[in-house]
Amino acid sequence: MWLDLFKRLIVIYLLQDLSYLVRNITPTMHVYTNCSYILVLIYVLITITFAKSIKCPNNCKCPPKHSNNHEVVCTGRDLRYIPLFPENIHDVRMNGTNLTYIDEHSFDNLTKIILKKLYLNDNLISYIHPMSLAKLKFLAQLYISDETRLNVDVLKKVLSFSTKQKLKRLIFEQNSWCDLPIDMFSNFSSNKVMKVRMTGNTFADIKCFLFSPLTKLFELSLSNNRIENINIFGIPSTIRRLHLDNNMFQTIPDWCDHGKEDTSVVEYLKYLDLSYNNIGSILNTSFVCLPKLKKLVLNGNPIAGINNNIFVNNPFLYSVQLSKLGNNLKKIDDFAFNSSSLSSLNLQETNFHFDQDNFNPNTIFSFSTNLTFLYLENTYLPKTEIRMQQMFSSLIKLKVLSLSSGRLNFLPKNGFPYLKSLEILRLNANKFSSWNDGNAVFRNMTSLKKLHMANNFIRIIDETSFPLKVLNSLEELDLSRNPYACTCDQLWFTEWIKTTTVKLIKYPLFYTCRQPNELDNERLQKYAESKKECPPWNQLYTFAIVLSCTGFLLITMITLGMKCHTNIKNCIYLQRIKHKRREGYFELPEADDFEYHAFVVYCDADRKWVHQTFLPKIEQNEGIKLCIHHRNFEVGESITANINKYLEKSWKVVVILSNEFAKSEWCQWEVDVVQERRRRYGRDVFLLIMLKTIDSKHMTNQLRALLDSGPSLRYQTGVGEDLFWAAAIETLRKPLNHLPTALL
Ligand SMILES: *[C@@H]1O[C@H](CO)[C@@H](O)[C@H](O)[C@H]1NC(C)=O
Ligand SMILES: *[C@@H]1O[C@H](CO)[C@@H](O)[C@H](O)[C@H]1NC(C)=O
Ligand SMILES: *[C@@H]1O[C@H](CO)[C@@H](O)[C@H](O)[C@H]1NC(C)=O
Ligand SMILES: *[C@@H]1O[C@H](CO)[C@@H](O)[C@H](O)[C@H]1NC(C)=O
Ligand SMILES: *[C@@H]1O[C@H](CO)[C@@H](O)[C@H](O)[C@H]1NC(C)=O
What we know:
It is found in: Membrane. This is Toll-like receptor N. Helices cover 28% and strands 16% of the residues. α9 runs parallel beside α16. Among the domains are: 2-50; 565-733, Rossmann fold (3-Layer(aba) Sandwich). The chain is an alpha/beta fold. The protein has a 19-stranded mixed β-sheet, with no helix packed on it. The chain has a 5-stranded parallel β-sheet with strand order 32-31-33-34-35, sandwiched between helices. Residues 57, 81-84, 105-106, 108-109 line the site of one 2-acetamido-2-deoxy-beta-D-glucopyranose. Residues 309, 312, 335, 338, 367 line the site of one 2-acetamido-2-deoxy-beta-D-glucopyranose.
């Protein structure tokens, strides 16, 4: 730095001198030649001498001069000493060189730079002089790995004489040390070491007391050793992170100081990694004396069961990882995850049988009220909707739920009714093909952002698959690697793809058709963009609807027909009359030519109806004048004479038929008389009213002949009564349409 500055000053001076010279050539010529000449010489000398040292040594790779990287890497067995490095180097990495014997001067070249990090990896070092590190005043990180010839006791001496003003990290990995001397850090009375990593050695037994001089220790890693026993006592209480993974623990170490009323030895420990050990069981005392624990990693242990209330002593526990337990996990107690702080729980690849009775779906998460992330990939999920619902119903805070590879062959309709906060749902690599009611499955997931359903057996996506509100507020949707049917049933989906703003993950590459056969392996995208001749409405639906409508109509008609066939008959009767009237027949003697509009034939039993119902309706309401023998016949004359006389005076004839009528011989005689009339004027002369259906046993030949001669009206009360009267009146008013034979 100061050299650069010095050189620049010289240049500035020379330039000034030169400008002075130009302005004033002759007088100062000698001044320039004397003073400037010396300066130029110094400049050149400095440049030449220091240009040499900036060169990167052979076998080494230096970073560009002005980059932020200050690390040099030297490799090669032919490098047998530590060379001199450019001054911008702060980190030296000796990797696979041959340093064999490091004497007290071997590190001299390192004192010429500001060395902050020294990495010695696989340099065949068998000895390091105790005073080697003493002169490296800026050293903050010492990293020694794969130096299997280096005895730990030799290093211990080196460390004890090293300067510790800046030393923060000590990393000794894969050095095949099988033991750590108890006085490893004995000379560390005042130090700033925060991180110690001694992974990949073969320690079997560790007494943490040896770390006690490291009073600032924050993180200790003893991963990848063969530790079976660890005595935590004496570990600096400042410890926050402890890595004990990949060892041979069979039980969880004891964290309590039994001398001091079971207080914690590691009262600030936040992170504990015990993964890939040989821990077979977790007891409810396993995690006592870890009052500040936040994150616990227990992956890869052969844990067979999880007891009740194991985390109740860890009020800050945030995350628990219990994944990759092989096939060992067989039982989870009812209140195993009772923890009001637990936010993230990872049970993936445990192959746990949630489809069996080895847990209680109602309680498993009911006391994990803060659970936000739940990973259940590669387990056997419940086989029934109700168990799913029980399991997930208390997780109102859940944001991420992973159920991939859960052997699900259905999507539970009401399996997730309470997951209102859910943002990410992963259902990849299951076995479900369709779910009829997307609304029931997803409706309450109003916060959902990412939905992953790749690698299932989904054939068709249509408007019933997802509630539109949920679907359109998604950020991403993964439906890749499903066996799509490229048929008209897919029309909705292919159209949706074209217009949506939702990110369809891995589209179009991993969306292929599997059906029909001729489109096997075709891209769904290609099908989506092809011209499709799909009926706007599925023909099957049309067919079904027509069928059901017809069925409904038929049933209605039959019911109606059964209920009111009289009305129908009357209705047909009325229609026929109206129709004929429109045709306009030859009209003959009309009503005006007669005194009476109609002659009423009835038997005595029906007199009441005729007088109280028929007469008022026809005469009073309609003004049609009727001839009734009880009223109009002249007294004294014989009945037959009366009948003949008044029949002549009447235009039409009304016959009121009933069982009584059929039984009465007198009435039968009257029928004979009026039949004669029909022969003359045609059947339109008659209005036959069936007051009550005539039983077959009362049916006589004359009656049958009368009924066969023309249609009859049936009397009806209630619904259809108006129809009856309309038809009766219409018949009475109807002109005669056929030429009476007698007048021809
Ligand atoms: C220091 O480096 C120089 C040049 O790279 C080398 O010749 C010398 O041997 C080194 N000194 C030591 C003590 O290794
Ligand atoms: C390393 O250097 C020593 C001498 O310093 C030599 O005897 C040995 O053969 C060298 N090893 C290799 C692998 O080059
Ligand atoms: C859950 O843990 C709390 C302490 O955090 C305890 O009081 C409660 O009894 C436990 N619940 C059950 C059901 O065991
Ligand atoms: C629940 O989890 C959140 C983080 O998701 C955390 O901030 C909060 O403190 C937790 N609640 C309890 C009671 O521990
Ligand atoms: C889920 O949604 C349905 C319909 O939107 C609603 O009736 C029901 O109360 C919701 N369930 C919960 C737990 O909020």
